[in-house]
Amino acid sequence: MAPYPISNDHDHDDDHDDDHDDFGGLQRDLKAYGRSMNRRQLMRVAASFGMSLGALKLLGCDNSPTTDDGTTGGSCSRIPEETAGPYPGDGSQGTSQPNVLDDTGVVRSDIRSSFGSSTTTATGVPLVITLNLVSSSTCAALSGYAVYLWHCDAQGRYSLYSSGVTGENYLRGVSATDSSGNVTFTTIFPGCYSGRWPHMHFEVYRSLSAATSVSNKIATSQLGFAKAVCDTVYAQSAYSGSATNLAQISYASDGIFQGNAGQVATTSGSVSAGYTASITVGVSV
Fold first, then answer.
1. Shortest CA distance to 165 belongs to which of 65, 87, 84?
2. What angle, 0 to 180 degrees and rounded to 10, lies between the N-to-C axes of helices 25-35 and 39-48?
3. Assigned domain for 96 exists
4. How does pLDDT run along the chain (285 residues), one tens digit per residue?
5. CA–CA distance, 54 with 66 (Å, rounded to integer)
6. How many domains would you assign to the chain?
7. Is 154 inside any structural domain?
8. What is the DSSP string of 210-272?
9. Residue 43: which domain range?
10. Are residues 32 and 145 both part of a single domain?
């Protein structure tokens, strides 16, 4: 599969020759920028000055709490809007292209098997993933919202689109959040194909009834996984080729994630017992 196009949006404001790294004009400017920037923009500013994101935090440019591993802890920041990619299966590509959103059977929490005319089950390391939807402005749980989640199989193929699985619709499903804003899917760990870091796609809707048409979506984004768990999973025979593809890219160099820690799911478990993963998704409502 061809990789996603990589953004060339690396424009930065010019710095001044008399700025200093400590308590000078640079600090004042970065603090001002930080108040109006999201995490991804801050990372780009850090790179332009040859600094780490941690250095920006020390300068007071990011007020979101962070954990020791660099991930955002307890943050309700709006998750970045991302491309749905070339294999959404949501009707956004026209009437001649696949659309599962209005299909009977798409509303389910276990997305490992196809539904409808096929019951083929995708093989791979078991994964239960939970998305916690919250308001990005108030941090309140978003109950009754719907999430459409899809991803590739262990061989890096997307159902409905990729050769050999065009007649399948596995690893796609819609489900609603509970009173705590949580929505959980039982699936498999996705494979890694050339040009992209291991990931899942998702769209957010205000309700299950709204999730029958892509025109009603209020957010589109992606989530990724930490390298350590990917290395472990991709040592399994079902994931042939994934380890090689992973070695050719990093989370920081991925054209979508660009190192944004807020899009990495927290994962625990093992190959034998299966994995669980979770991520907080801040949505503007």
1. 87
2. 160
3. no
4. 443 333 333 333 333 333 333 334 444 444 444 444 444 554 554 444 444 444 443 333 343 333 333 333 346 899 999 999 999 999 999 999 999 999 999 999 999 999 999 999 999 999 999 999 999 999 999 999 999 999 999 999 999 999 999 999 999 999 999 999 999 999 999 999 999 999 999 999 999 999 999 999 999 999 999 999 999 999 999 999 999 999 999 999 999 999 998 999 999 999 999 999 999 999 999
5. 10
6. 2
7. yes
8. GGGSGGG--EEEEEE--HHHHHHHTTSGGGTTHHHHHTT--TTT-TTTTT-GGGBPEEEEETT
9. 25-58
10. no
* CA pair distance 35, 272, nearest whole angstrom: 45
- Please provide residue 51's backbone torsions phi and psi, each rounded to the nearest 5 degrees: -115, 165
Tokens of 218: 């209020």
Q: What is the pLDDT of residue 265?
A: 98
Domain co-membership, 54 together with 140: no
Looking at the chain, list the stretches that DSSP marks H as alpha helix, in order from N- to C-terminal side: 25-35, 39-48, 53-58, 227-233, 242-246
Residue 257 to residues 81, 171, 225, 250: CA-CA distances in angstroms? Answer: 11, 21, 11, 10
Q: Hey, what's the torsion of the CAs at 17, 21, 24, 26, to 10 degrees?
A: 60
Based on the fold, state whether residues 271 and 144 are members of the same structural domain: yes
Question: Do 135 and 240 share a structural domain?
Answer: yes
Rounded to 10 degrees, the C-alpha dihedral 14/15/16/22 comes to 170
On whether both 46 and 184 belong to a single domain, the answer is: no
Looking at the structure, tell me whether residues 139 and 243 fall in a common domain.
yes
Is 197 part of any domain? yes
Which residues face 135 on adjacent strands? 283
Distance of alpha carbon 121 from alpha carbon 146, whole angstroms: 24
Q: Which amino acid is at 176?
A: A
